[in-house]
Amino acid sequence: MKSTKRQIDGGIILILIIFAVLVTFIFIEYQQLPIEIYFLFALNTLLIVFAYSLGLVAGLIGSMAAVFCYGTYLVYGAVVKGLMMEVNYQQVMWLFLFPLSSYISGRLSLAIKETIEKSEKYIKDMEELVLLDKETGFSNSKKFYLDLSEEISKSKRYGTPLSIMLIKLQYFDELRSIYGNEVCSNAVINISRKITELSRDIDKKARLEADKFALILSNTDEKGALVLKERLVKFLENLEISDEEDRRKLNLSFKIGIAQLEDKEEDAIAFKERAERELEYDVR
């Protein structure tokens, strides 16, 4: 956000400087402006830059100081020197223009900052959505590999065990073509809820494919992962896909593979591939 805000700030201030330079050129070249008006214009420009750069409150304080100084000058000229007739509405106008310009500039700075913050929040939210499976709320495959790499680094650093579990639903595409997306989607949601219920909060869950889930079990060895596997097997064996049209029920077939981090040089891809091999050997 800071770099974006800095670029916008620089552009606006540059525009003000160019405008001030043009007015200065006109004044020097054609002497169309009285020196007092030119001075007041320059002061107002500085107040605008001041309020934009430092914020609304600082800008209003600066403008009040300018109003006090210029107001004192007018009173001094009117009372002490008896120049009452020379104090006109144009001079009084600057007493209102100083705080008004500072207020608008400060509000503009604040609005730009808030807009940038909201935009970056939306971008962050979108990035998070890209890393999530919208059906289950689990991480997608991209986030899974990022999380797994992070957990491998922690395991190597602290010497703690790390396991991963893959859960693959068998014949999922065939079931979807028979029962339809809605029925299979409900089954997937039920499975994801049960995975969340049976696992720990610190365990990271992912949906790698339409028919494949993964769990990253930090600080868990293969023995501990097998305990979770038994619970999931018990649930999945009793899970049924219901077809309301012909009132049939069909049990899901599935495989579960577990791998514990062993080779300290193993990366996320190799670790996951080892779990894939274990997945193929799971027969019941």
Automatic annotation (TrEMBL):
Descriptive protein name: Response regulator PleD
Database matches in PROSITE patterns: GGDEF (PS50887)
Cellular component, GO annotation: plasma membrane
Organism, scientific name: Koleobacter methoxysyntrophicus
Keyword Transmembrane helix: yes
Domain of life per record: Bacteria
Every GGDEF domain range: 160-284
GO BP field: cell adhesion involved in single-species biofilm formation; negative regulation of bacterial-type flagellum-dependent cell motility
Annotated keywords: Membrane, Transmembrane, Transmembrane helix
InterPro entries, A to Z: Diguanylate_Cyclase (IPR050469), GGDEF_dom (IPR000160), Nucleotide_cyclase (IPR029787), Rev_trsase/Diguanyl_cyclase (IPR043128)
The keyword Membrane appears for this protein: yes
GO molecular-function term, one example from the UniProt record: diguanylate cyclase activity
Stretches that traverse the bilayer: 12-30, 37-54, 60-80
